[in-house]
Specification:
about 15% strand; about 260 residues; Rossmann fold; Asp/Glu_racemase_AS_1; four-stranded parallel beta sheet; 10 strands
Length: about 260
Amino acid sequence: MQVANILVFDSGMGGLSVYREIRQCLPGHNYYYCFDNANFPYGELSESALITACVRLVSRVVTEQAIDLVVIACNTASTIALPSLRAALTIPVVGVVPAIKPAAALTRNGCIGLLATPGTVARPYTHELIAQFAPGKRVLLKGATELVIEAERKLAGEAVDMALLRHVLADWLEGSDRPDTLVLGCTHFPLLDAEIRQLMPDCQLVDSGAAVAKRVTHLLSSHAMAATTGIPEAHAYCTRLDEEAKKITAPLQAWGLSTLTEVLF
């Protein structure tokens, strides 16, 4: 069997939600999950600093691990750094975008909520997606950086602050004009899907994971790769292996990522 080396990249743990979808669809490949915790969260970086960090780090891992395909599993990085990454690399680079199109097809009452980071909510690209794929729909926008931190804490084994989550979602929990479809527009937020469903049990949750997995499947079938053999592997890399990072070694192993190593760039 021809086995691909697939790199899934994010600033933190959110990309695991995309990695999970891809690996469920394509279990027979080698996976490398790299997170830039030294620069987390990306929403606080300038665009030039974000592009520089992404290009340098991703290029380093691509070279060292003979990567065949890269997935930028971060909405912020995807909207800012994809052109530079594609210019720097000769292999396919897949990004993520908020799942506005499938949400527009699913909504019954015509009201969609987009829960993302403040940067994603504010970017013209997001508003272009809404105009293109959800004309005539009411799309309510909410930026919530604090939920990125909650997702990271949950992965580390801490309890989710349900009072905080309820506060963030408060205006979508009551009233006749509340969304019946919720776009999780940050890859961290599917990690909180169980808690969000507790508060919004009648709302359909939509994220980009399945669409990205479908795109990766198509690209792997249409691009020639060097054949590799052996049992598929999965490893994690970070940019700062401090005590906080070491705390998530066990959770990463539970996701099938057998080792956590610091990558210098």
